[in-house]
Structure formats: C-alpha cells, structure tokens
Amino acid sequence: MFLFISNIIYSFLIAFGVIFGASSFAGFGALINNHPPLKTMIDLANSIKIWAVATALGGTFSSFELFEEGIFKREFGSLCKQIVYILAALIGANLGLRFIKLIQKCGELWLK
Q: Where are the bilayer-spanning segments (predicted)?
C-alpha cells in the first residue's frame, strides 16, 4: 500500500515538475530572445501536457501492457492502479499549467 501511495505522489510531482520546469526555462529563454516570457510559458505548458503525463508514467508502452493485462487477463487490480497513476499525472500536469497561469495573474495584479 505504501508503494502504491508513493508512486501516485511520484506521478503527480513528476508531471507537475515537467510542466513547471520546462515552462520556467522557456520563460528564461524568452527573456533572452526578447519575447514575452509569460505568453511563451503558457503556450509551452499547454503543448507539453501530454508529454509530461507520458514522462510521469515512465513511458507509454508499459502503460498499454498493463492495460492489456488488466483487460484480457482479467487482472483488474493492476488496471485500476494504472488508471490512478494516469489520473495523478494528469492532475499534476494540469495543476502545473494552472500554477503558471497563477503566476501570470499575480503579475497582472502586481502591476496595477
């Protein structure tokens, strides 16, 4: 049970970190290239959400193999675990995007 919970936390935080880290470095690159950093960060975060989920799961083929086992071999425990890992990664990626948008909103409020 402890391993299951820790894997959920890993999936969530890896997806969140991929979005936040990549967006932060893209914003830094946008500053260097004299482009709007927050727009660049949000555009990148929107475009890499699926890659953040795939990274958090450790590759897509292992997920499909576990789906196959769960459906065809009737191992519903592993199927449910995989669905929870995918949901945790999706929530982490979406919260990473929301965090970048929150930074934008705070910047707008700060400048007023």
A: 12-32, 44-62, 82-100
